[in-house]
């Protein structure tokens, strides 16, 4: 072997193969979570070129939310980006199931920046045994149904609504006269079509990707719940990184926050425009809904105090 060939061989052996990092999600490639994961991967490549190969698995390819979280905790997957399932780690995180907690996306961002994100991040890491890389947005949730426009609380009376989330979200719809139904997300279209449920609540992209507008004519912009998305890594994967890599991963997770929110807003605007072309979309009497569900927020505060709520209350109006 020539000296040149030998040197080339040595050089090739010295170059480490990139580490494969899977980022899995339960929602589709149309979701904010997928866009956020792409953004994160691109920024890591800029900071640590050639060191990692990111492979994204949307649409529940590697399991539903519950399975993804369990596998992350077990260290059998490197990263996930999921939403409501994280809230089930601890009842205190049920704050994100409270109705009309935030006035709009700008309010969310103010509350998170004021300390809510750090408090929630610390709680998830404590009770979940995972590393929280970033907290972004899954979106405000609305209601679609086959019967009528929802404009006031009375319009929900008697409707069977497919609902995800914890007990506080269930309580919201019960207080408004609806009957919460537990139906797998993938079966919601058929359930709407056959009358098993009259409606469903979800983020706009969820209705759009599942084509619920084909079987449910009325979409009401209730914005009743805001759900974050959580980009997380397993402790095992975090421990496998070098100190520099750990630093970069955590820095990038925070640095892309503004861009992640902007991406989510752009996606919602796009999908809402599509929905308006396919279904009847209406606004609602928010004050009436807020008044009808005050008791749910009061019950949360009685049980878990105002540690999280104080960030929401203090940032309700822009400075």
Automatic annotation (TrEMBL):
It comes from the Bacteria. GO terms for cellular component: outer membrane-bounded periplasmic space. The keyword Phosphoprotein does not apply. The keyword Magnesium does not apply. Keywords: Signal, Transport. InterPro entries: DctP_fam, TRAP_DctP, TRAP_DctP_sf. One of its GO terms (biological process) is transmembrane transport. Belongs to the bacterial solute-binding protein 7 family. This is TRAP transporter substrate-binding protein. It comes from Nitrogeniibacter mangrovi.
């Amino acid at each position: 072997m020539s000296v040149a060939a030998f040197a080339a061989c040595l050089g090739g052996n010295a170059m480490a193969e990139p580490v494969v990092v899977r980022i899995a999600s339960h929602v589709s490639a149309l979701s904010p979570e997928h866009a956020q994961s792409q953004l994160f991967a691109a920024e890591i490549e800029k900071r640590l070129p050639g060191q990692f190969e990111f492979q994204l698995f949307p649409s529940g390819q590697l399991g539903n939310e519950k399975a993804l979280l369990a596998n992350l905790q077990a260290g059998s997957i490197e990263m996930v980006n999921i939403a409501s399932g994280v809230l089930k780690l601890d009842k205190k995180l049920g704050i994100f199931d409270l109705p009309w907690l935030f006035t709009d996306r700008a309010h969310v961002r103010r509350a998170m920046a004021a300390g809510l994100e750090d408090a929630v991040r610390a709680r998830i890491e404590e009770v979940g045994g995972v590393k929280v890389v970033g907290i972004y947005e899954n979106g405000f949730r609305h209601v679609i149904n086959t019967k009528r426009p929802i404009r006031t609380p009375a319009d929900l009376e008697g409707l069977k609504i497919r609902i995800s989330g914890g007990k506080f979200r269930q309580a919201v719809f019960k207080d408004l006269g609806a009957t919460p139904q537990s139906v797998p997300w993938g079966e919601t279209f058929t359930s709407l079509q056959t009358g098993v449920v009259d409606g469903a609540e979800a983020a706009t992209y969820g209705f759009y990707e599942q084509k619920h507008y084909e079987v449910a004519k009325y979409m009401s912009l209730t914005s009743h719940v805001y759900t974050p998305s959580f980009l997380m890594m397993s402790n095992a994967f975090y421990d496998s990184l070098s100190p520099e890599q750990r630093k970069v991963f955590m820095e990038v997770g925070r640095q892309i926050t503004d861009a992640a929110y902007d991406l989510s807003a752009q996606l919602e605007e796009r999908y809402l425009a599509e929905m308006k072309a396919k279904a009847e979309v209406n606004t609602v009497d928010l004050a009436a809904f807020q008044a009808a569900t005050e008791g749910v927020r009061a019950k949360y505060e009685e049980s878990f105090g105002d540690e999280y709520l104080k960030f929401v209350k203090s940032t309700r109006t822009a400075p």
